[in-house]
Write a structure and sequence with these properties.
356 residues; 6-stranded mixed β-sheet; 15 strands; 24% strand; binds adenosine-5'-diphosphate; binds magnesium ion
Amino acid sequence: MTIKRLDVRNFRNLQEVTLEPGPAINLIEGPNGSGKTSLLEAIHVAGVGRSFLTHHRQLLIRQGCPEATVFVIRQDQDREERTGVRFSAGGEWEFRRDGERINTRAALAQGKPLAVITPESHALVEGGPKERRSFLDWGLFHVEQDFLEVWRRYQRALRQRNACLAQGAEEASAWTPMLCEAGTRVDGGRRAWVERVAAELGQSPLLGSLPGGVHLWYERGWIKEHSLAEALERDTERDRRDGLTHSGPHRGDMKIRIDDHPASDVLSRGQEKLLVCGLWLAQLVLVREITARAPIVLLDDLPSELDERNRCLLLEALVALGAQVFVTTTDRSLTPTPFSGSRLFHVEQGCITTVV
Ligand SMILES: Nc1ncnc2c1ncn2[C@@H]1O[C@H](COP(=O)(O)OP(=O)(O)O)[C@@H](O)[C@H]1O
Ligand SMILES: [Mg+2]
């Protein structure tokens, strides 16, 4: 489903903005501080009910205003869908689709794959395992119907078990069966998914400029060749002593190597960015293949660190996928738009004009 119209009110520095994007590439150009990233943030808020930059929603509301709203019309062939998000600093988030109240972020985001790549996305390669786990869980959320429920069950069992361990309470073991059952499923899902992402990444047009072959695999977060139940059994003393659960998918990681070296040791910043784009592209291709849903992709400050050839390759691959893409840049000459259906918008002090 592509966004056909976006109305933003009192969001960051955007007082009252309407955008009618095209179905393929939308280039958003303007000087620093004009409101480009804010526009992407507004699209993100309408898609998943939160910002990709902050959890503090008062920061998202235009200074001096009581609330912010983002309203989106999406179109899929002849079907239209209207989504509204409204929030105030003190109150709740309010999500509506076609007039009906939606109660959770997951329900808002389900079936609407939305990916965002920003200058901070390097963290996927050089940051901690948490970044990579959430990357994988994003894919699994979109391709496996019950993944979210299993993941939540695992988180609940882990929280409760850790709380008991921290208090030295015997009830900790009562949470172990649920932890094992849900944890083993999260692990299996992630392992299979990383294999598919790795296979897809192997075909990526973006990896030509990397200094070696990319190897991707999942490390599950507990001792090799043991089931989670066995690992927890072995950990009994250690878990009690430290007041926390040592083994489980909350310690899992997607390992990335270039030939025999950790990716973050051998790649330049630009190469890291390419790898991040390649990883996302691989995951988006799979989600598209499995669910038949084309994603919306937000690329904040695309030209930073990607050369022209790779910018073109990425945009071409996204267009081939049927993605609707929003790209921001301070310099439109840096971003090629030789694609049919592409549009150019200019942003200046929170006001947006359509150039073509
Ligand atoms: N809550 C807010 N109310 C008003 N202005 C804001 C708010 N939050 C951020 N801004 C301002 O909005 C402007 C646009 O920011 P941003 O979208 O990040 O710019 P760009 O990406 O174009 O460089 C900045 O000048 C920033 O200070
Ligand atoms: Mg910006």
